[in-house]
Amino acid sequence: MICNEEIKERVRMEDAVRFYLPGEEFRYGRIRCPFHGGEHFNCAIYSASFFCFSCKAHGDVISFVEKLMGVEYLEACKMLDRDFRLGLNIGEPVTLAEMVAMDKKLQALKAVRKKENRERMQLEDEYDAALRDFATLDIIITHGDPESSEYAAALRKHPLAKYRFEEAEGRLLEFERGSEARG
Ligand SMILES: [Zn+2]
Question: Could you say which of 87, 105, 113, 122 is the most buried, measured as most Cβ atoms within 10 Å of its Cβ?
């Protein structure tokens, strides 16, 4: 019994990154890619997956551990079970009753997640849009020509974009904290 679905439901990508890459710096939800070893923050960490915009490494929390630790799928599942105290006893024989109980638990968990997902996607979209606006203005202000009208406009729009970005980020974080408490 591997219980890979339950692992993916219960271990968030970000928690796995913080556990297996302690001290790793996050910037706008991205880290320096541990797979191609780049200097830039290319590897996006989503709630249930990761994607490197440079080397295209991607996957879920189990494949993250597989790649990072250089272990097989089953071993990665065992590591996550052990390190996050999931109590799944992977690889050990289970009784039918245990299997039924596990499945029931998983279905309940999935129902909660499904409801949350729609809201999360909406918040993530808002966050992405706000981040894009803010980052675009930031680039103009940092690298643009101070004499240009584009620069002046960016300077004017910057505080509101920053405010909107921080608001969107706050809503997303609050949601994540709420779902953490519920789940
Ligand atoms: Zn990469």
Answer: 113
Residue 89 belongs to a domain:
no
113 and 171 in a single domain? The answer is yes
The dihedral formed by the CA atoms of 86, 88, 89 and 95, expressed in degrees to the nearest 10: 160
Query: How far, in Å, is the centroid of ligand 1 from the Cα of 72?
Result: 20
Q: Decide: helix, strand or coil at residue 130.
A: helix
Sort 165 into a burial class: Cβ within 10 Å, 0-12 / 13-18 / 19+.
Answer: buried
Number of domains in the chain: 2
- Distance from residue 18's CA to the centre of ligand 1 (Å): 17
Within a domain: 88: no
Shared-domain flag, residues 64 and 104 = no
Query: Residue 69: which residues within 8 A CB-CB, separation 6 or more?
Result: 20, 75, 76, 79
Q: For the whole model, what pTM was predicted? A: 0.55
Residue 21 sits in a domain whose CATH number is 3.90.580.10
Whole-number Å distance, alpha carbon 57 to ligand 1 midpoint, is 6
What is the predicted pLDDT for the residue at 84? 95
